[in-house]
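We emphasize that the prediction below concerns an isolated chain of 132 residues; any contacts that depend on oligomerization or on bound cofactors are therefore not represented. The input was used exactly as deposited, without trimming of termini.
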Amino acid sequence: MDRVGQLLARPLTFQTNTGKFRVGTATDRLEEGLVRQILRGEVMKESVVYQGIKAEGIEEGLRRGRQEGRQEGECALIMRLLSHKFGVMSPVFQRQIEGLDLPQLDALGEALLTFEALTDLEAWLAKHSQVE
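Result of the prediction step, given as a token string:
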């Protein structure tokens, strides 16, 4: 048996403040209910593995939230600027602009400074938008 196989065949042991638990080998399939029964909620939450997974999930959620917030903010600003320049935007234009990603919104934000008519916006969206 190679080194990886030997490691996978070892019993998994968890050390917590309340004791040590032997769960099985890494190749065993453990059902969620069994793991919860063995580790009980609070004990599991104290584990380094659980805390690591939780921290990764929180960081990923924060990253996505910041990105979505920035995208929504840029979209709202562009819509206000276009509405100020050309009047109320049609729902078609709104959907196309809302479908743009951050780099596209940045590019549109710069391009709209040179737009003289709605046809300029229409042409820009036709060239850069993936949403119809």
